[in-house]
Design goal:
99 residues, mainly alpha, 1 helix, rod-shaped
Length: 99
């Protein structure tokens, strides 16, 4: 009976050691996964910052294009007005020369 008890204790001790080894392996895997999650989280944060900067740049360029477009329209209106003024004066001079 004592020998059987000793064998049972030996078997339980062996099982315990095996379980401890498995636990250490699992802890190692958990640490690895935790590090990977941390790296991925950092990458996501970096990409979000890059996306935000890109959006801001697009907004700035869009605003610049809108300012340029407004300036071009204003200049076009001024040229049209000057052209009409010149045409009007030309026609007046032409009609006064004829008369």
């Amino acid at each position: 009976s004592g020998a059987r008890m000793l064998m049972k204790i030996s078997q339980l001790s062996s099982n315990l050691q095996e379980t401890r080894c498995k636990l250490k392996l699992e802890e190692g895997k958990c640490m690895q996964l935790s590090n990977q999650v941390e790296q991925l989280s950092k990458q996501v944060t970096d990409k979000r910052h890059a996306l935000k900067r890109a959006r801001e740049e697009v907004d700035e360029q869009t605003a610049e294009h809108q300012r340029n477009l407004k300036r071009a329209r204003d200049e076009s209106r001024e040229l049209m007005a000057a052209s009409e003024e010149w045409q009007s004066q030309f026609l007046e001079q032409k009609s006064s020369m004829v008369a």
